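Researcher: Batch entry, complex prediction.
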Amino acid sequence: MVGIIGAGSLLASFLLTVMCLNQVGASGPIQSTLYHFMSIDRLSLDFGFLVDQLSVWMMMIITGVGFLIHVYSIGYMHDDEGFYKFFAYLNLFVFSMLLLVMGDNFLMLFFGWEGVGLCSYLLIGFWYTNRDYGTAARKAFIMNRVGDLGLLLGMFFIIKTFGSLAYKDVFAQLAGADPAMVTVICLLLFVGAMGKSAQIPLYTWLPDAMAGPTPVSALIHAATMVTAGVYLVTRCNGLFSMSPDAMHVVAIVGLVTAVFTAIIGLRQNDIKKVLAYSTVSQLGLMFLSLGMGAYVSAMFHVTTHAFFKALLFLSAGSVIHGMGGEQDIRNMGGLRKYMPVTFWVFLIGTFAISGFPLLSGFFSKDEIFANTYAHGGAIWWAMASVSAVLTAVYMCRLLYVTFFGEFRGTEEQRHHIHESPSVMTIPLMVLAVLSVVGGLLNTPHFMHLPGSQWMAHWLAGNGVNGTPIVPMAEVHLSASTEWSLMSFTTALALLVIVALYFVYGKVANLPVSDQKQTGFTKVVANKFYVDELYNSLFVKPTEALSKFLYQYADIQGVDGVVNGVGTGVSKLGAIFRRLQNGNIEYYLIGMVVGAALLFLTIFI
Amino acid sequence: MSFLLIIVPLIASALLLLARPSGVRQIALAVGVVNFAISIFAAYSALYDGTVNHETNIAWIEQAGIRFSVGMDGIGILMILLTNLLTPLIILSSQSQRIDNEPRYYGLVLMMVAALNGVFLSTDGMLFYIFYELALIPIYFICAIWGGENRIRVTLKFFIYTFVGSLFMLVSLLYLYLKTPGTHSFAWTDLVNVQLSTVEAIWVMLGFFFAFAVKMPVFPFHTWQPDTYVTSPTGGTMLLSGIMLKMGVYGAIRWMIPMTPEAWHTLTPYFMALAVTGIVYASIIAVKQSDFKRLIAYSSIAHVGLIAAGVMAWNKMGLQGSLIQMLNHGINVVGLFFVVDLIERRLGTRTLRQMGGIAKVAPRFAVLFMIIMLGAVAVPLTNGFPGEFLLLNGVWQYNNWLGAIAGLTIIFGAVYMLRAYGMAMFGETNAETAEFTDLDGRETAVLGIVAALVLVLGFFPNIILQLTDGTVNRILGSVQF
Amino acid sequence: MTLAIFTVLAVISVITALLVVFSKNPVHSVLYLIVTFFIIAAQYILLNAQFLAVVHLIVYAGAIMVLFLFVLMLLNLNQDTEPQKSSAWKLSAAVASGLLFITLIGALKGSSVAIAASPNPEVGLVKNLGNVLFNDFVVPFEIAGILFLAAMVGAVLVGKKDMAV
Amino acid sequence: MLEIIKTVPIEYYLLYSTVLFCIGVFGVLTRRNAIIVLMCVELMLNAVNLLLAAFSTYLGDAQGQIMVFFIMVVAAAEAAVGLGILVMIYRNTKSTDISLLDRLRN
Amino acid sequence: MFAGLFGKRDLLLPVTLLGLAAALGVSAMSLSTGDAGWGTQYTSMFSFDKYAQSFTAITLTSVLLLAGMSSWGFRTLNSSLGDHYALILFSLCGAVCMFSFTNLVMLFIGIEILSIPLYVLAGSRRDDLASNEAALKYFLMGAFATGILLFGMTLVYGSTGTFNTAAIGAAVERGVASPGMLKMGILLLVVGLSFKVSAVPFHFWAPDVYQGSPNTVTAFMATAVKTAGFAAFYRLFSTSFLGVNEFWSVGIAAIAGLTMTLSNFTAIFQTEFKRMMAYSSISHAGYLMMAILVAGQPGSAGAILLYMLTYSIATICAFSAYIVVAEPNGDGSFAAFNGLSKKQPLVALVMALSMLSLAGIPPLAGFFGKYFLFSTVMQQYPWLVVIAVINSAVSVYYYLKVIIAMYFTKEENTYEVLIPSSIRWVMVAGVVIITLLTVLPGNIFGLI
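Model: Structure tokens for the complex:
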């Protein structure tokens, strides 16, 4: 019942979104104001919505993928005692996420922004009896808050510069804005995006966020929430385009994240952790794309990524479900036989993300690479390609180790393994189809396929003052260059897929246990010790400082001074007290001396 | 009507203290509700263009220029609403447990309410001061009679500290009074017109500041506060943190800066620095607190530091933010202290480490607590957010870097509140917490009202902002630097 | 001549006054004090305040000092029993009173009074004093009665034995 | 015009009575016997009386001498009460040593 | 009125009360009609003006309450009860002289009439060594101070040629031939009067004497006597020495500052209630000294009047509560008050009100006393007001000690506390007066 309501509401929103899509397509953006949220003098902050091409696109992903994940969850969570709570949180999340993309001003975006962070917190900590999960949830929330602070400050600068937070006001005044100020705003907004989209240096929460139930990882930490940062930058493309410096920063952060986390992904053995690092890496690619000015490509990758990453997570969830909660791939193997549906959809997902020709990832990644080559040059392109290769490597490793070879789990687990019920597999199949065909939404123009660059045209739409909502990137590359770039990366991907099969698929070339790792492998397996670094850089000092301030600064220092005043008064009192020693002779002499001193005032 | 707000609880208090009738609880609650109704009606029938409504102005001590003049403008109405909204909640929350000598307890609570209403309604400087001090007596008795360990030492420190603070305000007020032209007068309108030299203004402002800084409290005058909050009975803590500390903020808005604008430029940087230091300082301390109540106490210091910084910034954003945040902080902190009280009553401990897993056995409690906690963390669409947004913006307008540092509060706020919530509610139950019973009706009512307010005011902050808009404009306009 | 008499009397009285302070035997002190009072009486006469001198002799030498002597004898304190204070104490007392003396003298040095143009030599005589006393000062005079009454009641109260107890 | 006014400056009287007064003060400070202390007080009063009489004569004004009478009155009353108190104490403690009185102290 | 006091010297309580009430009625009536009173023909000696009338009225009020209290306070006295009342009334008579004098001779006589009975009263518990010691200390130091005072009067007389205060004032305005003499005279008077009001460093007698004296007498000393001292101090300095106030204000300011600081700081350490009250009384003297500084300023006399009244009433209330707690149990420490709020809420309430009022915590009457005083002084001596304010804060500490014992301390003692009806009436009357003063302090202030 709960599941039906939960999933049904999503279905309804999906249908409504489709209607919006039609309306937007037919008659342009819809804007409506619900009520004044706050108004301070001229600054009016409204609870208002703007549904234009960009937001409706995001809404499609959110409600569409969200609906599938809801359906899937009915099966996945069916025997959890917090079943109703789960759907409550999940729907709250969808609400927040829609708020984020539908808002017509930055404040609304911020509402959604924090709202999804909150839901993320709630859902990561869903199994709250486990303290570690709670800690992971907290970590996610707090790292997000770091980003939120940046976003908030960015908003303050926007208010100062443009006198409004509404998109239409802000973007209408872009021409007259001070470029330096715009750079500051962009950087601060990007800090927000880094937090939400788990970019270096604020990425460590995302792998930990895998503590949540797998549908949550699929919906929040792969398909939707983490792409909010991409949405933000895309939404503010007008601002970012004015600031090459900021763009540069975005690109560098994106690229570094993409490569760095892909490397970490190579040596992870938790099925969800691999996917998590993969997500971070893909997000890095999106930011790289944004930094190159290819907003559409980024959105395109957001879309296809939503399909195949949701697919991967959900099928990983299916595996975990089938294995009775096991997540370590070293204890899996040969699952192909036991869970055929899951195997096939996982395979599709893996190939899609690896850039297997004509699958969705192939198109979206290719666009990013093309843009990178066009705007950044060969070195940038090469680096991006490295990340693509790494992606293929760890994904294939995951696929082969999990589904090929012999089963390595316990007998009990072997007994337990079963294919998931259809309420779970059907959404998987739908997503698999989407992962396959998703690329057709925005095929490159040089392929001259029908509907070429459809998405880019859609998103360009009609924004304020006739400027496009999301401008199309201009790629001045010859078709042959593009063809060759594409062929090169595709070849590499195929090579990897095949090669890895021989490394992991055929031979039982298992990842060694944690203790036996040495050298660089060990460093990678331990995620470059970034968590430990942060721990000793921020967490420990803060905690130590907290104790220090409490014990020494507060109790002994500040309060010590206060008490010291009291003690001083007492001490002085103790001295004065001795004057009154009961002996009248002292009193008399005191009087006389006092009088004599008083008489001295005559002589002043 | 203003007069009623003071006199009704005062008479009821005298009745309870001296006559000790039966049905004390009902009387106290009824008085609280009646007062709330009066204040709602007053708010309803008031004008919000910055003028003073419902004035009563009668001669009192002519020889000293003191008049019994009360009235409410927008800010006053907000404070009155805060006070009289929280009063029934506080009374109701106290009623879910047995208290020794109830007539005395509720009598003192009502006396406190009368004094607080007086503070917020006074338009005469000396009357303000008198109520300001009068409020101290009942709360001191409440905390010292029904307090926990060390209550005598702690409350004595509290009393003397705050008393010393307000004495300096008295000196400042006197100084201003003697500067009023002609027959001296304590009327706000007369005092505010006094022209001071910068040096004089600095001293006068320091006098005010010391009083209000101790009351709020602002770092480094805060050390009485955690101990007092911890040791006080929950009703007392609620009164202290929910309403009484607002007296300091209110005083700064209404009295300190309008009286001494000449010193604002000179002193505000220091005050700001203190307030912002306090935010970070208290937040960091709160991070590792093991005593839940003390943690909230420190969080309160951090929050109030932000409110104070918003006031000092003296711009529209900051002031509006501080006003709305006063209301919302009051609501949240009352909720939080009630939560602590509920836990302590059931488990007999406030130590976070000894809790855990309560969410499992008391889901209703967990949800309400979560909502209130989110309000305290200032998640958007809870009541904590609008205030914090405006405050941070106000401070940021004053100085970008200070604004950014103050902004750390949203990070640290999340850190310590989530930690507390996690330690208390999450994890496996232990022997004690397994026995934790979920809320009964009265407790649900209190927490439910608080949680509802958290959400309603989170969605519709403009209701509150409109109350004070006109008055803030007028005050900002009337104070020339 | 008058100056000489004044000086001689003054020096003697200062010496006897010092002896009052320094004698070990209380009785001697009393006797020295009586001598001092006599000299002061002589000074009164020198000042043409004969009535005052007489009253002074009667009240002080005749009444008060006898009372002192009587109490001394009554309490049997007429030996050198009084323990002496330490010399350090005496020194500090001397410093204190010396300081007082110096400040007093410093302030009073060079003072003069507005000497009446034609001073009435009769001022110290009984008739004149009586006039002033019973005209201008009759109220204090009456009230002095209360004072005595109070002193009497008081002396009786402290002096008598408690009968009831 | 009296002989004395012409020959002895008032300053001399001031000096004279100040000396006597301070001797009295010194006596009060140094003696331990309460009776002697009381006597020293009487000495102080007499110094004052002398000065008053001198002023009275020099100013040609009788008030000063009237004041002296009142001072005598008071001195007598004080002496009576004071000695009464002394006797009372002596009855209880068998001593008139003021140094021994330190029962009342902080 | 004096006759009224004479006649009742050896009668018992009811007559005393009646007489006092009648005297109060008369003085209140003359206050309200503005009648200058009797003795107009003796204006060179005393003048029963508004100032004197209002001070007489408040002192009579205090003594009336004290008399009510004494019926129980003196209950152990059998034979000499009449003597006690007589002495108190004599003393009161001296106080009236001190309120109304226009001549230094009257002042002197008044002071002596006030003091001599007190010497005796202090020692009126003849078998009690403490009482004896108190009497002797008070007497010796009092006599010594009298000598100093007289020396001062003499010098003033010598420099101005008169004892009449108004004439002195005129002479001082004109300027005198030898200012050194006048100044020394004034300072000697300051010393003498400071002794009477127990200002530092002439306060040493006060704690010991207050402690040693019988409770009722202590209350009398702390209230009526102090009122008289200040009234006289103020009257003398405002009529006679205003011409040279720059000169003596330095010394007075120093004395005021020293007095409040030293006494408040010392009071912190006291464990005996009575001794604490002694230091409290000294500290109030310190505040009141500030009023002398601004003698002649409008409002300063009213400030003293109101302050003295609030202070006196609160002190009497406190002593009446103290008596019922301490006397039957023979324990005067703060610990004797432990748990009093449970045993005798009325006594505890009266004591708490008195303490808070003495501490000057708004809105109690004591606050208004302080307020008027401080606001009068503020204009000329803001720094002194700041010192006073800090001291008030310190004083809160020891006043609260009693409240803490009564209300907050959990340890119980076994003392039984009963309230005799007379004391109950005193308490109720005291509370009523405190309340009235809280609501309408301006009326008292405006009397003068």
